[in-house]
């Protein structure tokens, strides 16, 4: 940076080190945004421009080497088309660096930015930028207002900009959740399959003394579901491997992997990761690995040669623990270069498998403390709503006031093969990680039970009851299930069934509100079977269906009926309100957030 005196040449300034923070960059990548217009963020930029009366407004996200604008108004060419600039033209990088708002009436007077090329090339003189953050508080960029002349920013303008930045941050957090939802759901399904299979193996082997059979079945279960190849090692009294079972996904590699396992019993060096796990009982993760790791960890050169043929690009190794935490052995999973690298989530899953393997090998209790993948379920809480020409959908989820984690409230919507739309909302008792895990199980059951089936929604809920009881799942929950048959023109047929959930509401075109009451029916998951009924109505163009959880209407100082009546009154006359605005209005009306709240709104077009 120059001293600002006339004639002083500008020189390159190193970007702030915080820009390269890996956790921040991962969160930025998880937004799925880039140097391309995005309607939601363009809307934020327009609001800033209109409300603050500035010629330029940006939603600016800052990477390690550039800033890009998913939302922008008023940029001059060529920047308007490019939707990005190098850091040499970035004021917003400093908002990321200082993690607080940066307000400059005249940027030319401030040493931090007076030599920034944005002043000449983009006409930035007055600047006000508010941090945009993820759920962990990491600053991803800035919502900024820019003027091409000096400007004294008023307190009211800065409050407005801060409020818009908070809303824009919420949208970024939603994008992070939505962008990862599909991957999270895939991982959840895989993890449940893995744990279910391992639990089945443990049950089959309860009481058996055939440890070799236990090891072979466990190894065969993990490949190829979890890894390309694996080594399951048990130690002897001297703490060294005495028995090794090895499996590769490719049957043609069976001889190689068997030979590797044979050599492993005597060929591990003191630097071996497996020996470290056996010695310390602590898991090891090599998200990036190579033959050099094998060479360093073995004393027999043949092992590196075999590993080259088997393939190694990442690995993890976890202890097999018996009663009291005693280390009985280790599970080592290896992936080749064609498969995704292992990460912390895989490590958590493998640690749980090691515990279960220890129970089977030790012939002890079948089931210990459950290690659900609830953290993944939390991030998959918000599904991506389907796009249906005849319907508009919007949804919101808001945790209780003093919590950020997901509880048991959930919603879902998906399109059937015949074009029908299934919408659902529910509430599992509790607000902790276990409730979130149970919620994930229930939502997956709803999808699996309903997808591709033409049954009435009452029958679908009855089948769901049966599945919960048959699988012995500890689920007690309320839910509403809706089927909508979209029509290209005219009236959409709608059926619903309610299992102890607050009644759905329909805001008719014209503003009237209809409460979809039916005969009260019990919660899901009760011990005795209970028949479920289906009810019918219709949605004409402009009608809005509202599904919600009790956090929207329940308060300690009033009854549910009073809360429902208040909600119906609040909805009266909102038929012309844009759907997203309607959802935001309803959430904003909650004065004391005592419970999580989920909303799903569907408007007929």
Automatic annotation (TrEMBL):
Residues 36-182, 210-371 form the GAF domain. Residues 388-604 form the PPM-type phosphatase domain. The keyword Transport does not apply. Keywords: Hydrolase. SUPFAM superfamilies: GAF domain-like, PP2C-like. PANTHER family: STAGE II SPORULATION PROTEIN E, STAGE II SPORULATION PROTEIN E-RELATED. This is Serine phosphatase RsbU (Regulator of sigma subunit). It comes from Micromonospora ureilytica.
